[in-house]
Amino acid sequence: xxxxxxxxxxxxxxxxxxxxxxxxxxxxxxxxxxxxxxxxxxxxxxxxxxxxxxxxxxxxxxxxxxxxxxxxxxxxxxxxxxxxxxxxxxxxxxxxxxxxxxxxxxxxxxxxxxxxxxxxxxxxxxxxxxxxxxxxxxxxxxxxx
Length: 145
Known about the structure:
It contains six helices and three strands. The protein is mostly helical. It has one domain: Orthogonal Bundle (Arc Repressor Mutant, subunit A). A three-stranded antiparallel beta sheet has the order 1-3-2.
């Protein structure tokens, strides 16, 4: 199999794009006193049933220790609260507070607005190709781990 070479490093371009997106999200999140990761945690929490703390880290690609610190900060900031799972005493569920719901709504709007800007700028065929490529990258990474 012939190995193709290119002048651009895919991982580098993905990282640079994510850093730019993260900076943009952090600028918006900073207005509400949070950061991008806190916004993403709020977006992954089920408002009514809560979300097990153990499920949040894998959804975000975070180490559990980092998430534990962040959840503690979010609890101190009044964004979330914890409750024992009624069916499994070993599990803790994370719920948004009223303030957390307000911040979550703003976070969701920022994400939707950015997506709309991209969907309105990039033709559908190119977006379809992008999602196909990004899915393949995920698969390649998963098999390299």
